[in-house]
Every structure is written in structure tokens, then in C-alpha cells.
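Notebook B, p. 112. Complex prediction, attempt 2.
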Amino acid sequence: MALDQQITERQETDSLWLEREMPSLATRYAGKWLMVHKESVAGVFDSAGEAYREGTRLFGIGEFVIGEATDVPAVVGGFH
Amino acid sequence: MYQVDGTITHSRMLVDVSVALANEPTNFLPIRGLIDTGATVSLLREEALGTAMVPIVGKRQILGVSGSTRFPETFCSLMFSTSAGPYVIEEFKLPVKPRDPDPNALATYDMLIGMDVIQQGHMTVDGPRRFFQINFRS
């Protein structure tokens, strides 16, 4: 299955929400890891691993997204 | 000291690394990484994973030279072979570039290794002698 087809509608919606809300979340939770479910922060953690495990336990893979609370953009110079 | 040694070839720093996805945590796949100190995040090509089912934990906007693209992100462990044995970076969130639609597209590396990995250690580049080292904290 193509990678893009493995992304659920829930994850698509939640990741867009996370990007949109990141400026305020980065201020509020700087340095923390966020687990997002249904367009709200479902948990705040010290590590990505904790966020992943709790998201998997509570909602299952495909039903949440995780992200670091940071306003630093992700830059990759040459992925061609 | 967990030390990775590499040579600079054609102005590029390539290093062997293995990746294990979170849904298969002991199945490390050997891939070729390109050190990219200009990248804030690392990036994996989907082709490097073969037919493995990739657990997705998000999608993130990545800025590149040709604009911005939203890439899926997976959760994995990275393993480097070092002078003191394997050095593993666990629980690592990694954007994945979806498979290139052109099956003949050339790729000289499987993964860009960005500052999110590099900054976990001390990196030395010796240009005249064409080698580099990364010393990961023990």
C-alpha cells in the first residue's frame, strides 16, 4: 500500500490542526511532545516515545498524531 | 565512546545506518545515509523500506529547495555501527518521502541525516584528509 494511502483521515485532520495551532502550542508547551486526537491535545509528554506509547494504548495506530511543540520549521535542502 | 567514522567522497558524507520501524522494533534494515548539516530534520525515502508496512504518526510540512511539501512521519529506531558496538537512537520521529512515481528515478542515498541526529553527538569534519567522525554520547 502506498505511503499516502496509509494515512488515515483522522491523522490528516489532526496533523493539519497541529500545524495550524503550533504557534500557540509551541509557546505553551515548549520542548514537550504532544499527542493529538480529534483536533485537541490529548496528552503532553517529555519524550516522543511516551507520546507514541500513550497514543497507541488509548486510541490505536492511525487514530492520533504526535509532534514536538516547537516553532522551528523543518528544513531539508535537497530531497530530490 | 560510540564513534562513527566515514570518508568524504565527491564532497559528500555517506554513512551506513539501520532503521527499525516501531511495529517491527528488532528488524533493522540497513540503509545508506547522507549527512546533511543544512537539514534541521532527517528524512527517509520510502523506497528504502521495501514493502514494509510503515506506521504513521503524523504528517509534517517540510521546507525544501523547491518549496514546501507535507510528508508523512513514522516512528522508528536508528542504529549506527560504531567502534564500541551498535549505537541506537530509539523512539525517533522521522519524516518519510513517499515513493517516487518514476521507477527509474535515481537515488544515491536512502536517508538524509539531519541535525536532529547529528546534534546528539559531536561531529568532526577533516576536509583535507577527507574524513569525518561522529562521537555519540555514551
